[in-house]
Amino acid sequence: MKNILLICCFIPLLVQSQSQVLTLKTAIDRAQKESPDYEVLKNTMQGEYWRYKSFKAGLLPQVRLNATLPEYSNSIRRIVADDGKDIFVGQNQSIFNADLAISQNVPFTGGEFSVRSRFERIDQYGENANTNYSLIPFSINYTQNSLLFNAFKWDKKIEKLRYEESQKALVERLERISMKTTNLYFKALKAQMQLQIAKNNQKNQDTLFQIAQGRFKMGKIAENELLQMELALLNSENNLTSRELEAKKAFQDLNRFLGLKTASLFLETPKTLGNFVVGVEKALEEAKLNRATVLEFRRRRLESERKVAEAKGNNRLQLRIDANFGLNKQDNNTNTLFEDFNQQESVRVSLGIPIFDWGVSKARRKMAESNLELTNTNIEQESMAFEQEIRLHVMNWTNQQQFLSTATKAKEVAVKRYDISKKRFILGKITITELNIAQNEKDRSILSYLNSLEKYWRDYYLLRTLTLYDFMKNEKVMSQTVLQF
Questions:
Q1: Which of 4-8, 302-306, 434-438, 475-479 has the highest mean pLDDT?
Q2: In this structure, what are the phi and psi dihedrals at residue 154, rounded to the nearest 5 degrees?
Q3: Mean pLDDT of the region 66-79
Q4: HSE-up of 344 (CA within 13 Å, CB side)?
Q5: Helices 2-18 & 151-217, crossing angle to 10 degrees?
Q6: Cα angle at 366 between 364 and 301, to 5 degrees?
């Protein structure tokens, strides 16, 4: 009998030696680099990175060359003559032009400053064949769509804030991957433990049934007790089959998420981190410093304020300015094309005032202001929920540490009670019913301990996610993953 019990105790060690051992920390590290959720995160972050890079590049000088390759036409066209009448003329010509421009957005005013050079050649064919050239060696231009609304100023604030938000969101989403990995890990761990319990119970029931058969032959127990032992053995065999299927599915889910190809895994039961105190005010302080949600609130408010400023700037008065200064020359001889340039300059100010528009401008402005008020109200409510969630979870974390301590002690008591009950049953001092009660309590206490341990680790990573702060190490949670773009 002792030999059988020793074999049952060594079964987990034998399984572990033949399988790849996986810890919770190893699973999380792998998930943050190999899981499907990480690939989604990487693609999302790539989009945010290139969005901000595109915005920053738009603030730098842009150089662009536009050219029309020889455009040839031989047709009859209608033109307006000098006396104002429409006439038809034949046109047989080719045109070539090239325009080189350096432009720069001006964030302080919201306009665009540019320096341009332009060359153009027209070749006329037929009886009056000739070639004309036009050259603008340089021209300085400034254009501003509105003097009352500066889109660049708002975009600069918002895009910078959006990028900072995405950087903090990266760490937060990696922590959420940790939470998902923890869920899958413990699902598989509980399936592994329940399978091992089912195997041990089946072996114990088989052994106890053989002992019961011997006692029945000796007339020490009634047939009813023997049948009860046989029923318990059959139930344990059915339970073992069910647990094998559950464990297989749980491990398949974990392997698929981690990208593991191994057919056999052995999961180690994570140890606790030890008791440590989390202060509510400290948690709130770190959350406000580290979470992307706080930056999201500011960004959403700025976006609404931008729409109000745009509605006020464009709906009441529209004022546009265009200015140009430079040199030009037109000639049919390239030898003199670069001599005696003519000066060119122009200034145009466009003014638009809505006199009567049936309240359209006012409605747009009021709608933007109403949306701003709604945004502020929503942000205020979400900020309160944000703080409340952290306060409640800090309280929950304190209680969870106590729950785990109680579940650990209950498991130890139930296992010890079952061992004693089994020995007493072998000695014939208790009934099979009492033994089954002790076994069921032992199984429930082990599962209850694993559930409590799972909640302990889930709450730990949730606490890290909500604050992006590791209270065990007293340091901010930093991303160890480097995204390559």
A1: 302-306
A2: -70, -45
A3: 82
A4: 15
A5: 150
A6: 100
Residue 125, SS3?
A: coil
CA atoms within 13 A on the CB side of 357: 13
Give the 3-state secondary structure of residue 148.
coil
Please provide residue 454's backbone torsions phi and psi, each rounded to the nearest 5 degrees: -65, -45
CATH class of residue range 2-52+155-299+375-476: mainly alpha
- Strand 62-80 vs strand 130-144: parallel, antiparallel, or unpaired? unpaired
CA nearest 272: which of 464, 399, 406, 453? 453
Residues 217 and 215: their CA atoms lie apart, in Å, by 5
Cβ atoms of 72 and 100 within 8 Å: the answer is no
Structural contact between residues 435 and 421, judged by C-beta atoms closer than 8 angstroms: yes
pLDDT digits over 469-480, tens only? 998 888 888 876
Question: How long a stretch of residues is the chain?
Answer: 485
CA nearest neighbour of 179 among 393, 476, 454, 482: 454
Residues 6+ apart with CB under 8 A from 220: 428
Q: In this model, does residue 6 exceed pLDDT 50?
A: no
Listed residue (394, 466, 464, 451) closest to 183, CA to CA: 451
> Which amino acid would we find at residue 410?
A
Structure tokens at 187: 């699902």
CA–CA separation, 323 and 325 (whole Å): 7
All residues at 6 or more sequence positions from 264 whose CB lies less than 8 Å from its CB, including other chains:
18, 19, 20
Q: Quote the CA–CA distance of 61 and 84 in Å, as a whole number.
A: 45
In whole angstroms, give the CA distance from residue 180 to residue 293: 20
For residue 170, which phi and psi values (nearest 5 degrees)? -60, -50
**pLDDT tens track for 32-71:** 998 999 999 989 989 999 999 988 888 888 889 888 778 8
DSSP string, 39-101: HHHHHHHHHHHHHHHHHHHHTS-EEEEEEEEEEEEEEEEEEE-TTS-EEEEEEEEEEEEEEEE
Domain ranges within the chain, ordered by starting residue: 2-52+155-299+375-476, 64-106+109-149+318-352
7-27 b/e with 16+ CB inside 10 Å = b?
ebeeeeeeeeeeeeebebeeb
